[in-house]
Design a protein that fits this description.
Blueprint (H helix, E strand, L loop, with lengths): L14 E5 L8 E7 L3 H8 E3 L14 E5 L5 E9 L2 E7 L2 H13 L2 E4 L1 H7 L4 H10 L5 H11 L2 H14 L3 H12 L2 H5 L5 E7 L5 H9 L17 E7 L2 E7 L14 H15 L3 E7 L6 H9 L4 E5 L14 E2 L8 H12 L14 H13 L4
Parallel strand pairs: 1-7, 8-10, 8-11, 11-12, 12-13
Antiparallel strand pairs: 1-2, 2-6, 3-4, 4-5, 5-6, 9-10
């Protein structure tokens, strides 16, 4: 991508090594050596069972061999280019560490796998997508990042650039605006949305959170104020990664002071979580009339999603605002609530193959393109 800076290439006349498998023990570990002299450095320490020098072995063909002094570490070695070779060894950390140490003595520069990705001869969007894919929480978000890895965003940016060159500023602005409209989704492809459940004590927030998760993450007790701290759990809602937060109840006049410091601390933490939330779910007990403070919350947080819990019991008299009815105890209305949360978080999901900016640098560049479309 022309807009995202120069490609990062290996240092001249040197090679580097990178461990491409995750840390810890596994079945196989992979060490890649790449750059001028990499194949020669590996060949010095590898005995290929085919009996041929490594440089003469066919590309992309795995070959059995031994690494190091007798008796040697059993490996599978494979050349992937004129100056690129991969060594697959035992998955414990010791084997890979020994191979990296030997190659470092031969002049190899060690780097971690993100640095290795940055060194590849690809545009920055492809590299960023490659790195982001490792942190995708769900299949749905991974699919969107895979589209960007395949060039969806790069092609869209080139289209905007070409429109500007052609003097079609209005079309360029509209295209850039469409892309920026998906930026919020892009930011959450590797970072979950934060959904906070809040309300008065004992309205059933903890029980509701357990029902949404499908397992008991939170202790449930009929005693008001059982939840004294902020409890979180990560899940997926309609394929989107979501961090659910169960807050301590917002007790009346909590901010003004209380005789119970623990309750006050819980209420203050709840307000901090609410301030940082992507979506607030206001939970009410429909068996009790709305209090004056609850009505004030409705005015203060008009964008919140409203839930009337305990729908298996009789509703209290009096007018109530529109709300989703749930019974956390019986699991009623939970599917509808999850669907409502997903629609609030992502009202317009990008279709398959759509371009989605997913880094702040990409969004900044789109805003710069838009600025170039404005009249002088």
């Amino acid at each position: 991508m022309r807009c995202q800076g120069a490609e990062v290439m290996p240092e001249p006349n040197s090679f580097y090594t990178a461990r491409l498998t995750p840390p810890g023990s596994g079945a196989i570990a992979t060490v890649r050596a790449e750059g001028p002299g990499a194949v020669e450095a590996v060949a010095t320490h590898v005995r290929v069972r085919a009996g041929r020098p490594l440089r003469q072995c066919p590309l992309h063909r795995p070959l059995l061999g031994l690494f190091g002094d007798e008796p040697g570490e059993p490996i599978v070695v494979c050349r992937h280019g004129r100056d690129a070779v991969e060594i697959h060894c035992h998955g414990g950390p010791a084997a890979a560490e020994r191979i990296e140490a030997v190659l470092a003595q031969a002049g190899g520069h060690r780097c971690d796998w993100p640095e290795w990705v940055r060194r590849q001869p690809a545009d920055s969007i492809t590299a960023d997508a490659h790195l982001a894919l490792a942190h995708a929480r769900t299949e749905r978000t991974a699919a969107i990042l895979l589209d960007q890895f395949g060039g969806a965003l790069r092609r869209a940016l080139v289209e905007v650039e070409n429109l500007i060159v052609a003097g079609k500023y209005r079309a360029a602005r509209e295209k850039a605006a469409d892309l920026l409209a998906r930026a919020e989704v892009g930011r959450h492809l590797t970072r979950p949305w934060r959904v906070v459940l809040t309300g008065r004590p004992n309205v059933g927030k903890s029980c509701l959170m357990n029902a949404m998760l499908g397992y008991e993450r939170v202790i449930v007790d009929p005693t008001a104020g059982t939840t004294r701290d902020v409890l979180t759990a990560t899940t997926a809602i309609d394929g989107w990664p979501v961090e659910l937060t169960d807050t301590a109840g917002l007790a009346p006049n909590a901010a003004a002071g209380t005789d119970e410091p623990v309750l006050l601390r819980g209420a203050l933490l709840a307000r901090e979580q609410i301030a940082a939330a992507d979506l607030i779910v206001l939970v009410f007990d429909r068996t009790r009339p709305l209090s004056a403070e609850e009505r004030q919350w409705l005015r203060d947080v008009p964008q919140a999603l409203h839930v009337d819990n305990k729908s298996d019991l009789a509703v209290a008299p009096g007018a109530r605002p529109p709300a989703m009815a749930t019974s956390a105890l019986r699991g009623e209305g939970i599917a509808n609530l999850l669907r409502g949360i997903a629609e609030r978080l992502v009202p317009d999901p990008p279709p398959p193959g759509a371009a989605v900016p997913f880094t702040e640098a990409q969004c900044l560049y789109l805003r710069e393109l838009s600025a170039r479309c404005l009249p002088a």
